[in-house]
Amino acid sequence: MGRFSWKVVMGLAFLGFSRSVGWALNKGLSFPLLSSYTESAFIKGTILATEGIIGILIPPILGYYSDKLKSKHGRRRPFIMIGGTMAGLSALLIYLTYSMGVPLAGFAATLGIFYLSMHLYTAQFRALMPDTIESGERGKASGVITLLEWAGNLFLFGLTGYLIAKATELTGKEGSISVLAKTPYLKLPFIITSIFLIGAALFVYFVVKEPKAPDVKEDEGLVEYFASIVRNKDFLKFYAAQTLWWMSFEFIAIFLYGILAYILYGEATEENVKMVTSLGLFLMALFNVTVLIGALPGGILYDKVGRRLSIIIGGIIFALPQIWGITIRSRGEIIIALAIAGIGWGILVAASYPVIGDLLTRFKREAFTGRYYGFFEATRSLPVLLAGTIGGAIVDAFNGNYRILFPLGALMVLIAMPMIWKIEKLEVFS
């Protein structure tokens, strides 16, 4: 592992930016497009939760095998190039299936192909940072990478909102996803996303150089690797806590349009969901702006004031607006709450990203970043599955009351914080 390299950090940040553009495309357009097929929160949530199933299975396994890969092209970069190229092509496929009027099953299958492609290189992307950055500098690197990742979300949401406005001017009808779908503008987010995904993957493959793979005398088998995570209480506490706060996030992210339609119009019908599409994209953009505000300080806090405290500060700031969300009634209140939540989320994400790398350093397991960051990503994907299915079922059980997701989300974050505080070996060390 060499000196801190801005070229490496910015290369990873660009890769993170492109991946966030891809995930933002999914978050921003998949729910409204699925609303053209069905109004059921459970069906839409279950389809979107496919990403969670794939994210649980693929990153831990491929992360493990990337640790073992002996190649002149590196351990991580081959996965990044192949996965990024496939993800870019599958983004185009999503647009083609929708524009051709493919039935719901076919459209859902296309989303599944996109999710699979994105997760082919999730663990490898995450592992490259601790592979190349020393422990004492990881907070700063995480802050920059997180900043660019959420800038990718902001870019896509802002672009889509602008295109909806242009479609409104062109058609003379009120802006919504249905108006955008009737113009040539709908294809642009998918084309641009494809360019970024493929371009960033190729950039990292040809420009970012990996350090020499460490020699591992006694490697562990796949089953032993999973068992070692369960045996180590510090890893287990962190993974459990991360699952909870990402589930809280996914409740809002997956069902944002339904939440807005319910709060503002009293019911999340297809028409009401389409009516709030422009507002939803604006709010996603706003959330990402405030995430950017929180991300860089979050990375700095991680290195300066302590790993546990920085995570807890972010978690509490993120949870408070969700508690307020129980009584929110107006657009203004929604905007303020989401802005505050974004700052907390930026701190929380930036401060939690380096944790696995530092725990591996603490326990002298630096050679295994791929597999442990693969499991890291699984505990970010499991919440998509749980939030999509459980959240949708709960909303349907409460007669379409999307507001119920706010107190549930806040509770999960608050349960996670004591778990982090009990990871005593997480603090700064030499």
Automatic annotation (TrEMBL):
Coiled coil: none annotated. The chain crosses the membrane at residues 46-66, 78-98, 104-123, 144-165, 185-208, 243-265, 277-302, 309-328, 334-360, 381-398, 404-421. InterPro entries: MFS, MFS_dom, MFS_trans_sf. It holds the Pfam family MFS_1. GO terms for molecular function: transmembrane transporter activity. Keywords: Membrane, Transmembrane, Transmembrane helix. Residues 242-430 form the Major facilitator superfamily (MFS) profile domain. This is Hypothetical sugar symporter. It comes from Pyrococcus abyssi (strain GE5 / Orsay). The lineage of its organism: Archaea, Methanobacteriati, Methanobacteriota, Thermococci, Thermococcales.
